[in-house]
């Protein structure tokens, strides 16, 4: 789980541990951190690598299906817009970014034809961002691709193991954060 740039290893935390015996304290059987357990930093890297693999495969397939300009941040933003439209402030709040950052992402979605600005029927002073048919199509295709990718994981791992993995993640992930859209705020912007 190490990134490389021009053949150079850029993950110095991982590099520094290679060949160094573990200084982890002894633990009771079945507890994490015992002999033979992988180092703790590996779990988030594996989870992120799994996420990244799914997202990269999704976007390759979306490009093949007519959405070559879709980026991961766009998918989060389309979800934040929702089926009834949202203001730029609401989109920013849902994404965990500033109104200005949300506005830049919305501007890009407008330029690509995934969203449009309309008057808010409830308040003429407000503008809503709404999904266009192209935006709805991108989300529908994304859902179908994710179903296909999940089926591939079920084939590779076995359906029971995949269900166990999903159940285990639901156990450790707080319910209020399960479907948060603000990943862009801590991954580096929209």
Could you list some keywords that capture this structure?
single chain, 190 residues, mainly alpha, two-stranded antiparallel ribbon
Describe the fold and architecture:
- 55% of the residues lie in helices and 10% in strands.
- It contains 8 helices and 4 strands, in the order ββαααααββααα.
- Strands 1-2 form a two-stranded antiparallel sheet. It has a two-stranded antiparallel sheet with strand order 3-4.
- β1 (4-5) and β2 (8-9) form a beta hairpin.
- α3 crosses α4 (88-95), α3 (72-81) packs across α5 (99-112) and α6 (133-157) crosses α7 (159-172).
- Low-confidence stretches are 20-27
Computed over alpha carbons, the radius of gyration is 21 Å
Biggest β-sheet description = 2 strands, antiparallel
Shape: globular
Task: Give the H and E element order.
Answer: EEHHHHHEEHHH
The percent range for helix content is 55-70%
Kindly name the structural category. mainly alpha
Residue fraction in strands:
5-15%
Number of helices: 8
N- to C-terminal distance: 25 Å
């Amino acid at each position: 789980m190490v990134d490389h740039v021009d053949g150079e290893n850029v993950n110095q935390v991982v590099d520094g541990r290679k060949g160094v015996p573990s200084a982890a304290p002894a633990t009771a059987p079945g507890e994490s951190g015992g002999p033979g357990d992988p180092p703790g930093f590996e779990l988030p890297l594996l989870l992120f690598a799994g996420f990244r693999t799914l997202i990269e495969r999704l976007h390759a397939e979306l490009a093949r299906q007519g959405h070559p300009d879709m980026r991961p941040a766009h998918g989060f933003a389309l979800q934040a817009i929702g089926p009834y439209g949202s203001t730029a402030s609401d989109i920013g709040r849902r994404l965990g970014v500033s109104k200005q950052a949300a506005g830049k992402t919305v501007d890009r979605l407008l330029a690509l034809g995934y969203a449009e600005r309309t008057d808010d029927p409830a308040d003429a002073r407000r503008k809503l961002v709404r999904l266009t048919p192209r935006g709805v199509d991108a989300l529908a295709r994304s859902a179908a691709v994710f179903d296909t990718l999940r089926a591939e994981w079920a084939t590779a791992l076995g359906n029971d193991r995949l269900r166990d993995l999903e159940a285990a993640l639901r156990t450790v992930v707080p319910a209020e954060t399960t479907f948060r859209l603000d990943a862009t705020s801590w991954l580096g912007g929209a």
